[in-house]
Specification:
The protein has seven helices and two strands; from the N terminus they run H-H-E-E-H-H-H-H-H. It has a two-stranded antiparallel ribbon.
Length: 192
């Protein structure tokens, strides 16, 4: 197995974490809870900034750790803090988002900058695949008494404006969150 192949598979490994890295992961989990509580909610939409903590998890811990933590967070938030019941159907979107964050943002050199194109493509995948397709389908299955393509597309149409407006905001915030000097310094300190 050559170095290139080893490097490609390392991204999808589940590495052991040091105590410092576990503490950093716990801080990101707490940040995710806080950002979830600080969401902007109106009668027709809810804007959350949890994606910032998820992006940092993807950058530092790769796709598998990010996915496992995000699904566990979804379960805990929904059952213990959200007042609802966790649904495996809704968790599919969380799982796919975790894989996307980790696959696009994880790097061999954690202190290296994440390229614009990676941020744009990752946010585009999450917007289209997760927010519009998977989550809309999950909402249709869970809450709609009528399950048809017309209902699916009408539900998607109501979700589309928020996603179009929020896409450039999420791209900019994600890029600057992943590439600011504090994050790069933490990368050098915790991931030598």
């Amino acid at each position: 197995m050559n170095n290139q192949t080893r490097t490609s598979f390392k991204r999808w490994a589940l590495p052991k974490l040091s105590v410092q890295q576990l503490v950093l992961l716990a801080v990101l989990i707490a940040l995710s809870f806080i950002l979830g509580r600080l969401s902007i909610t109106t009668q027709i939409m809810r804007i959350s900034f949890v994606f910032l903590a998820s992006s940092l998890m993807g950058k530092w811990f790769g796709p598998l750790w990010t996915t496992m933590v995000m699904v566990l967070l979804d379960f805990v938030k929904t059952n213990f803090f959200g007042g609802g019941h966790w649904s495996p159907i809704m968790a599919i979107g969380v799982l796919v988002a975790g894989l996307i964050y980790g696959a696009f943002f994880y790097q061999e050199k954690p202190d290296a900058k994440v390229a614009w194109w990676k941020v744009i493509v990752a946010v585009l995948f999450i917007t289209i695949l997760v927010n519009l397709l998977i989550n809309t389908a999950a909402l249709l299955v869970l809450y709609s008494p009528h399950k048809s393509w017309s209902v699916f597309f009408s539900m998607m149409a109501t979700r589309l404006p928020k996603n179009i407006i929020f896409f450039p905001i999420q791209v900019l915030m994600t890029y600057f969150a992943l590439n600011n000097t504090v994050v790069r310094d933490l990368s050098k300190k915790f991931f030598k």
